[in-house]
Design goal:
The structure is a homotetramer. The first copy, chain A, is an alpha+beta fold. In chain A, 31% of the residues lie in helices and 26% in strands. Chain A has a 7-stranded antiparallel sheet. Chain A has a 6-stranded antiparallel sheet with strand order 5-6-7-8-12-13. In chain A, strands 17-20-21-22 form a 4-stranded parallel sheet, sandwiched between helices. In chain A, a hairpin with a 2-residue loop joins strand 2 and strand 3. The two termini of chain A are 16 Å apart.
Chain lengths: 460, 460, 460, 460
């Protein structure tokens, strides 16, 4: 997963982008980068690590220019490596381009092979690089037409920001899978994956970029194009469930509100008798509050999260190894001792962490543990940008709820149903839920099946 | 403030200490250090930074030995500098000593001057260094008698762990101001500032070190001495209010439970009509849950905390400066818009942060903001180890609650009373609350008054 | 300028390359890089800095594979930046390519513009990148034919090593401008810019790669191709004068021997009466020994060079600034006091350093200073890989010897004549001496003149 | 070995000291440090590494004050560790002291034990720390009297600079074993181990500090005290042979001149017939020039030294290990092939390096190798500050010249005799030559013999 940010015409463009990325840090902790185009020259800096470690005052000062784009990355396509970090900055026609991308192009492997065989040179292993190559190979005259031509060829999900010497172009795939929104900071325009970045820099939220929209920001102001065939909206439901920050406004709603609604729906069909509702922090908190409010069972912050987990944490010696889960979470003994608990998590992937937390709660004396999941069983891999494991590793793809319950050793286990998930979201249901239903609305390229997609989607 | 940890007789002593410090990281983020005594030699490593940054696998491997002590530091006495980080390791008589200390010695300046004038050389500016000098100057024969002699001379607060070539000695001042507890990890003994460190390493909590106790752990097992005049217990109430981790068991209770009780007491005398209770995370969460449960007003996590604040965060340019509070906290617009809020914080120091949060909530459309503080007004500086600002900077020392309310621009402001604080803690009230009452039970050295104490207590 | 190294089929390929680059460090101190191709995958590491700082044991261990190429760089074409460091590693057809290059392609700007306009994307600003793009665009079938096709298009100087999944290919331009030689290390073949790298790894020197030769090393052994029109040899005379290490065997001779011969020729026409001959270390030493032996005037190491000049040396405050030359060189007072000196340097570029050294020698009491230069006046910029300043900055391009003497404030100044330089090199004279004569044997591209060449040759 | 530098009253004191240390870098590459006293506060920075790596512009800027001392260290006493780096900065009486020391105190172990047993705390393992403890324990009133009292107790060698809040004090042991000199930089005074540091900063050399002199620089100008019993001068002859920079003026002569004289004396008794004289660079160059001039055999720089040896150079894999000597030195094949060589080194310690160089020269075809050493056989360890190995490792302490010749595999081997060494130094012979003669003029403490001295002198 990734977070992207861009700004048009601000004298502190790199500094503002730094703050924007900082607010988007939850979307990717692996690498961070900023590029500025400044007249005829391009300045950029990208490095493995957190935003606050990657950029120093000296580095920011060297990123001159009034136009900037930035990127934080948690790899989906392309291995975890400095060369795959973004922005991608290239020399192209008479000037430079800088591109940042959130999403995953499903036909990247095929397009890449064709480009390579006809003489294009690839220097990264990301899907994103194909876009600039397609632009370079296009016969169109203007940058904007070349971009549109390129986007007509790629399939999959993309929210992207492209910087030229004098324009900032934002584009979103016709399904609107990944989020992207537009704001104004006094006389400047800003683009961000999530609105929480606007709050930090005190920019005004204007609107979301529309699915299929290509928005050009230049001297002449805003120009909005819709060059693609209109498609049914397919926003990523997992942004609501887990990925986005609760204070972001996305796909027309506030994330926190939706998470509470998931918890409330979960409680509606539940008649469990329990002493307290406990979230697995931080992602389970919203749903747990909703569940508590709907059920009347008191909410308690019975699990504590340690936020000092550094990137360089040293694996303890094998003899003292088994602390994995405790490095991140601990429970409050007195609170859970002898109590009947409803424990809420946003989703279950492999179920190994949940199992360890349950074991810890039992050790501290919990009497009953009723595990509730504020999303349906995750059965299918995501090919549109969420870094889920392969199908084999998704416990729900091969086990029944009852089998999962036995593995996790909880007293009861319930998931939110797809139906209730839809109910929770008031208004039209315009979401991609392929991870729960297997309903992949973008056809797999050529004769690929799901196994091949899994094989190729994360490894170029 | 500081956190300390020690282990007696474990083949992975340094590794276990690393994990222990990691669990105590909230007690000090400025520097971290570990010392191991291994036969005739001493190995130690200390550095500015977080535990997970200071120690690498190579560094830990070089810390050989089965006895270890560790320290995390947030400076109270002595400037923020590598030379002031702990453990203090010195050559002394026939071997080495390693010492870690949490607390503040009120007569350190005077003792230090006397020692210096009679020929002792100081290489740090910490109060802790006087203890080893007093031990070295003592005429007693054994290390333990020398330590006791030294502790008879110093005044103030101390929880400390002293490592010799073959003993681990834990000591706590006669008032029991700072916490310290004893645990067992299979055949080894462990000492820690807080019990949450035992949970992480899966050690069994045995008991707290008693006020005035000197506990010697050696080949002959545990030996418990009480060489000091028995004093009234004076546990630091601020550990409960703010400092300790909620999952720690301390001074006979669980911190989370006490915090909830503070919130409950606060609600009892409050008859405010509001739509929701919102904590300032993370420290206000416990009290907010208690307030919500007692008042029936729904609890909401309406303020989001960004945990990626790095140590190297770059101050934005002056032109884009005023984001201070937003770097750490943001509010959920939709949730607070048009609503009457009870906002709960654990304490108010300068009131500048609270004021900014209130202004942000107003900007997002909150209708009423009722600010509640789960502790009494902080009017007096702490001389026993909490790094409070000087009296002049404590807004409550010179302003009435009404004046503070006006400054903060909230609709109403209420603090917990000292009486209700006492009520919240069931059982005997055995706490130091000098920060609220000015009741300093340890006489100031010689003819010093409070201004002089402030002058000297944080600057050697 | 750059140094390149490659090895075919050695289990410690990266380690050997590290040592090879270490021996070639004098050819470039700006960045260093090594790439290994290992079956289907490529591993590489490149970074700004010296070889011994760029590579750690961990980094070397991760560079798996039995084929490796390495590069040290001092920028000529392309700005000084990590993205411009080599090896260039790209995905190409069915596998990876890694390329290292020493030299300068005179028509790179034009070829690059054409490639870019037809859809190639450039990610560096080096001339080297055009070679891989030309290969990728070629219609030839095999890698080797594509390389040859690409080299038919580029003009200028190149000694290069290309690594494919199973071949190591070395190529040298038809003029043989830059050096490149072949060695054997037991069962492996090695390629290096200079033979001194073979000495360090105890490889056997076999021969120099011929001008215009393309040498393919593969499972089938060595295959030598000569696909280009045979040209007059034009070895770079400046390698002898300044650049190469004195212990290297290059262009059929040993560099140290040639330098001494330059000094001897210089002495032959000189009848100066002096007390001692002093070189400007290190580059003037060979010529000074030759001059001393021919003239009978004693050789003295009267100037001492400080070798600890770090990359991060801090510029002193303006108030104490003027130490520039002394940071690198100091003179022995007693030795030079009251003496008549012959001071020998290898060449004069701007004359500012020479002027400062002369001033220092005068300050220490030298009676007469006769400056001798073991090469002719440097009047013209180099477009074939030596990083000379532009013509305006070359003092000899606009001033007579007499004017230079006045500027430097020496008692006499003499250069080696082009004629004597030719005499010094016994056997056929097969050298490029355009920097002295302006005789550029490769036509400037299209309608460019020297000013335009200067403008473009160092800045893409 | 160490280098020390100090400056009294200069607004750029830290910057000048940085430059001074840079010029003294050859005296110690392990750690570097600078301390400034500025009114009531002390600022210092010390770190493992080279001067140019240890200090950044920011670090230097923070070192405020007009008085400064600096130190570069190559450990003799005390293990190689940051805590042992200098300056030692301590709080003492009413202010701070900063001390730098070059030399070795022979009775440090004993004095240290006594101090420790009476209550002093040691935080380093250096001999230098005893001086500040002795000062602190002294009953004298003034700092200067306390220093003199301390120096009356210690034995061995010392050149030191002591900084107080308003004085700079330089002292040299009564034998004058280590060098120390005084210079003037406009209105400021400077003190340095060697005069080459004065050249770099363009200070005027005034004179050497006298043996037994304590020189106080303060507001009242210079005050020179001679509080110790006058002893025979015993300057370290090894400074001339190897340690000092050739451009330094020391013990009344210029080092380069003495080295040439050593070479000349060596040649006088030699009637070898050879083709060339080759130094082992850099330390053998002076003697080789002297030998060549006296013998008429041509001087050639036949061995090349690689100056890029970094501190972090990675040991090659065992399979490719044996390059040790070649990393530092290579020979010019053509030059030595078939030739009869006189190879000159300054001294022989273990003879392993010399042996490898001889083997390399033979491999390149040298016909005869006559090894000449410009000092007598090194038979005894130094207890006065040079970091020689223990007696067992000194090949000359247990082998005859003939046996050493056989080990090294040279055709002949000759050392300079003690007699000729004395002849080479014109004027009075006032030198410590204990490393050659075993004539230790300072009695070993109490009942220690040489083995015990070796045991203790380098390990506290």
């Amino acid at each position: 997963m990734c977070g992207i940010f861009g700004i048009y015409s601000h004298k502190d463009a790199a500094n503002i982008t730094y703050l924007g990325l900082y607010a988007l840090q939850h979307r990717g902790q692996e690498s961070a980068g900023i590029a500025c185009l400044d007249g005829d020259s391009a300045h950029f800096h990208k490095q493995m690590g957190l935003v606050s470690d990657v950029f120093t005052a000296d580095v920011l000062k060297a990123l001159k220019g009034i136009l900037a784009v930035g990127h934080v990355r948690y790899s989906t396509a392309g291995s975890s490596d400095l060369k795959n970090s973004q922005p991608i900055v290239v020399e192209y026609m008479k000037g430079y381009l800088a591109l940042v991308h959130n999403g995953n192009l499903t036909n990247a492997r095929i397009v890449r092979d064709e480009l390579r065989d006809s003489g294009s040179i690839f220097q990264t292993t990301t899907d994103t690089e194909v876009i600039v190559h397609l632009m370079a190979r296009s016969r169109e005259k203007t940058t904007i037409d070349r971009l549109i031509a390129a986007l007509h060829i790629v399939e999959g999900s993309y929210s992207l920001i492209l910087l030229t010497q004098n324009e900032l172009i934002a584009a979103r795939d016709p399904y609107g899978i990944r989020p992207l929104c537009l704001g104004r900071l006094r006389d400047s325009y800003v683009i961000s994956s999530e609105s929480c970045a606007f709050d930090l820099i005190e920019a005004e939220f204007l609107r979301e970029i529309e699915p299929g929209e290509v928005l050009v920001i230049s001297e002449r102001g805003l120009q909005s194009l819709f060059p693609f065939k209109r498609m049914t909206r397919k926003h990523c439901i997992f942004e609501y469930i887990y990925f986005a920050r609760p204070d972001s406004f996305m796909f027309g709603r506030t994330v926190y509100t939706i998470r509470k609604a998931f918890g409330r729906e979960l409680a509606k069909r539940d008649s469990i008798d329990a002493d307290m509702v406990i979230p697995i922090p931080d992602s389970g908190i919203g749903a747990a509050i909703g569940y508590s409010q709907a059920s009347g069972i008191p909410f308690e912050l019975g699990l504590i999260r340690n936020h000092y987990v550094g990137r360089t944490f040293i694996e303890p010696e094998p003899s003292i190894r088994h602390f994995g889960v405790k490095l991140k979470h601990n429970a409050i003994h007195d609170l859970v001792k002898g109590k009947r608990l409803v424990v809420i998590d946003d989703s279950i992937v492999r179920a190994t962490t949940s199992r360890k937390i349950i074991s810890m709660l039992r050790y501290y004396g919990a009497k009953e543990i009723h595990f509730r999941v504020s999303s349906p069983p995750t059965k299918y891999p995501c090919f549109y940008g969420i870094d889920t494991p392969t199908r084999k590793q998704l416990i729900a793809s091969s086990h029944t709820v009852d089998e999962i319950k036995s593995y996790m050793k909880c007293d009861s286990l319930r998931y939110l149903t797809v139906e209730d998930m839809k109910n929770a979201i008031e208004g039209d249901y315009t979401f991609c839920d392929a991870c729960f239903t297997g309903d992949y609305f973008i056809p797999f390229p050529k004769s690929m099946d799901m196994e091949q997609m899994e094989l190729f989607s994360n490894d170029y």
